[in-house]
Design brief:
The complex is a heterodimer. By secondary structure, chain A is an alpha+beta fold. Chain A has 7 helices and 19 strands. In chain A, strands 1-2-3-8-7-6-5-4 form an 8-stranded mixed sheet. In chain A, strands 9-10-17-13-12 form a 5-stranded mixed β-barrel, surrounded by 5 helices. A 3-stranded antiparallel sheet of chain A has the order 14-16-15. Chain A starts with 6 loop residues before the first strand and ends with a helix. Chain B is an alpha/beta fold. Chain B is 42% helix and 10% strand. A 4-stranded parallel sheet of chain B has the order 2-1-3-6, sandwiched between helices. A two-stranded antiparallel sheet of chain B has the order 4-5. In chain B, helix 1 packs across helix 9 (209-218) and helix 2 crosses helix 3 (64-81). The chains are: A alpha+beta, B alpha/beta. The interface between A and B is large, with 42 and 33 residues.
Chain lengths: 305, 286
């Protein structure tokens, strides 16, 4: 590939080389760690460990078929091939690339990957863990308005060799139209992730570095039938299992035969992290009050640690 | 060959949660008593988490039509992997995808336990659940387009189509190859031993008469209301006073005028007659 056709960006502690420009992403001048190219996928020879409706996975390989988008093949934590359907915009490919496809790549590279958004204050990072469409991005957006910096939106790329460190993700929050309305930003002209989906790339401040930051606490988000925010610190094995159940797409852990090391990572991380259940009212009616309560709790955790 | 999924299907506010409470009590291995927040069903059929888990995709990156098109494959995969019968709560009507394939594939299905309730009594429950007035609740009941339409708002459920009340009922009871067992909410009240017992036999669960009666008592409406008062219930909408409201047949008379009741009867007479909510000469039974 002609290096003039490469666009290199920082993402999750790595330099990715993309075959198309990624507007708003943080440019890297480092040699690529991961090569992304558009081409034909040849995965017929692979002995897949686990197969789902749209994916196949083994220790070193991953294949995802996204309807009306295309197929993504990830090999040995270093190469991604996109076999795009005709006419699919690069923005749509990017949506899958920087989330689920990168998640698979990070697992191949032995990162500890959780599903959540993360924010930073005074050099310490706090992550909200939870399922898709659970309110993590909206909560992160509101905390950003209180002065926190966004570290990552959906993929928490962590290493736990010493203390848990989390790597910055892409410099956007993926926000639904409804969330933008709540933030008073519905008239902003953000790029839509897929034309007509109603979900948008809302830019946040770039980190300007790929360096990891210390992770201090995990808040496991539950949208509940409650009137106010409730925090409950988890201890012992409840802590470990809460982390484990937040794996980024558990099928990846199982398919890559990383169940035991992943559990060990969860246990290791639990020794260094505060882990709390965070119950928030289901319809997020008073999101600013939720953010105030979370800000107070973070102050309490920071003071304690 | 039968699949492993039992669809616990009902139009909203028709007794689905009550049945789940009974089912949970019946299977209570440890005799811990019923915890409302731990009702045992194997997910809601329209759950985003279910689709994400089995597809490996993030469904919030998909259009609702794309996610819907994946649902039959997800259920087939669930059924193939299951080592026991799975009970999936469903409020969707039994509908078809644009390519003609059923949303709920017969090959994944063991059968359907369909719970039906007098539409007149559903109205006050809809009012409570959706915090709306009578006219709005009647409009929802009569609306072919009623359902969950998250559109561009995320949330943890995929889009679901309920149709109107008659459409919902007929879609399930007429579904080909779905082995449907219908129970009426009113019979759960009037003759619980026979009704719950029949449902359990349909599910192939072997329990003694004593176990069934104990589960019926634990899941009695009075008990459910008391538990909700004491500890709350996570499925209660925040704005509603309670999830478990009256549990009676015929309480619609406290809410609906004669004209409003007649409006519902006119719209749904055929199905109401078929399921003995109207006599042959059109009188309201409950």
């Amino acid at each position: 590939m002609d290096t003039n056709d490469m666009y290199t960006y920082y993402l999750y502690g790595l330099t990715f080389s993309f075959p198309f420009p990624c507007h708003g992403f943080y440019k890297s001048d480092q040699a690529p760690d991961v090569m992304v190219e558009i081409g034909r996928i040849d995965a017929g020879h692979i002995d897949w460990k686990e197969e789902g409706v749209c994916y196949k996975v083994s220790s070193d390989f991953y294949l995802l078929s996204a309807p009306n988008i295309g197929r993504f093949f990830v090999a040995k934590g270093a190469n991604i091939v996109i076999e795009s359907e005709k006419g699919v915009p690069n923005e749509a490919l990017l949506l899958f690339l920087v989330n689920i496809v990168s998640g698979a790549l990070l697992f191949q590279r032995k990162y500890f990957v959780l599903q959540g958004s993360a924010i930073e204050r005074n050099g310490a990072v706090f992550a909200f863990l939870g399922k898709s469409a659970g309110g993590k991005s909206l909560l992160a957006a509101v905390m950003q308005e209180k002065g926190y910096r966004i570290v990552t939106d959906s993929v928490c790329a962590i290493k736990t060799d010493t203390v848990p460190l989390i790597y910055p993700g892409y410099p956007f929050l993926l926000l639904w139209r409804d969330s933008l309305k709540r933030l008073g930003k519905e008239k902003n002209t953000f790029r839509e992730v897929r034309n007509g989906l109603g979900r948008f790339w809302a830019p946040n401040e770039k980190w300007g570095t790929n360096a990891p930051l210390p992770l201090k606490a995990l808040f496991k988000l539950h949208r509940e039938n409650c009137e106010k925010v409730e925090f409950k610190e988890l201890l012992g094995f409840r802590k470990v299992f809460a982390i484990r159940s937040s794996a980024y797409h558990a099928s990846l852990v199982k398919g890559m035969e990383q169940e035991k090391p992943f559990f060990q990572e969860c246990e290791r991380a639990s020794r260094h992290l505060v882990v709390e259940d965070l119950d928030i009212p289901y319809f997020l009616r008073d999101i600013n009050k939720i953010a105030d309560d979370l800000d107070l709790e973070i102050s309490r955790v920071l003071a304690k640690t | 060959m039968k699949g492993n999924i039992v669809w616990l299907a009902s139009y909203p506010k028709s007794g689905n949660t009550w049945f789940r409470a009974f089912h949970t009590s019946l299977l209570d291995k440890y005799n811990d008593g019923l915890d409302l927040d731990l009702l045992q069903t194997d997910y809601m059929a329209g759950s985003r988490f279910l689709i994400d888990t089995f597809t490996g995709l993030d469904s919030s990156c998909l259009f609702s039509g794309e996610a819907a098109a994946l649902r039959p494959s997800v259920y087939n995969a669930m059924s193939r992997k299951a080592r026991r019968l799975l009970l999936l709560k469903v409020h969707d009507a039994y509908t078809f995808l644009p390519d003609g394939a059923p949303l709920f594939p017969p090959e994944s299905s063991f059968g359907t336990l369909y719970i039906i309730r007098n539409p007149l009594d559903i109205v006050p429950s809809l009012m409570n659940h959706f915090c709306c007035g009578i006219e709005k609740a009647i409009t929802l009941l009569n609306d072919q387009k009623f359902g969950v339409h998250n559109g561009q708002n995320g949330l943890n459920q995929l889009d679901q189509s309920y149709l109107d009340w008659s459409g919902h009922v007929l879609s399930w009871v007429s579904a080909a190859d779905m082995n449907v067992h219908v129970i009426r909410y009113e019979d759960m009240i009037r003759s619980p031993r026979e009704t719950f017992g029949g449902a359990i036999r349909f599910l192939g669960i072997e329990k003694t008469e004593k176990d069934i009666l104990k589960a019926i008592e634990q899941a009695s409406f009075e008990n459910l209301k008391r538990k909700e008062r004491e500890k709350g219930f996570k499925e209660k909408p925040q704005h509603a006073q309670s999830f478990f409201r009256k549990g009676q047949a015929g309480s619609w008379r406290e809410y609906l005028s004669e004209e409003q009741a007649q409006e519902i009867v006119t719209k749904h007479a055929d199905v109401m007659r078929r399921f003995d909510y109207l006599t042959d000469d059109g009188k309201i039974v409950y």
